[in-house]
Amino acid sequence: MSELTLLLLKLGFLLLLWAFVFAIVYALRSDLFGERVRRMPAPQSASGEQAPYTAAPAADPAPRPVAAASSPGAAAGTARRVVITSGAKAGVELDLDDQPLTIGRSSDSGLVIRDDYTSTHHARLMLWGDEWVIQDLDSTNGTFLDGKRVTAPTPVPLGATVKIGTTSFELRR
Description:
By secondary structure, the chain is of the alpha+beta class. It has one helix at residues 3-33; strands spanning 39-40, 54-55, 81-86, 93-95, 101-104, 111-112, 123-128, 131-136, 143-145, 148-149, 154-155, 162-164, 167-172.
């Protein structure tokens, strides 16, 4: 093999290696810091002045199912609170208010879990019809319901154990 061919192979391999390193760094950055929020210009007012820029909300990673009616009796037989049974926040209770509850490391989550095994936006707990459903948001380490990995939106019965990272919780009335 000629020296030129060997040199080109070495450079090609080095370039491929650096591309792999950059791909890993990009994946880690997006997992640690989440998605960037784009700034969109506000609509112009009637006087022709443009309102100050406002941050647009981050795009939802998955579509949300239609929530049940918000009347007090609409979900009378369903869970009304989340109780953390194990992990760093064991004993903490959160009231559910028929709105989706996001779970993850991000400070904008409804339930923040600071854990090495929890993704920035790990899972979503939402009311679908008259039952609560857990949805994994493509987390790295997965969401488990009674020991089984959740791959699609799955109904969560009262008292069933949901495990995210090292934290477990249950839905209760």
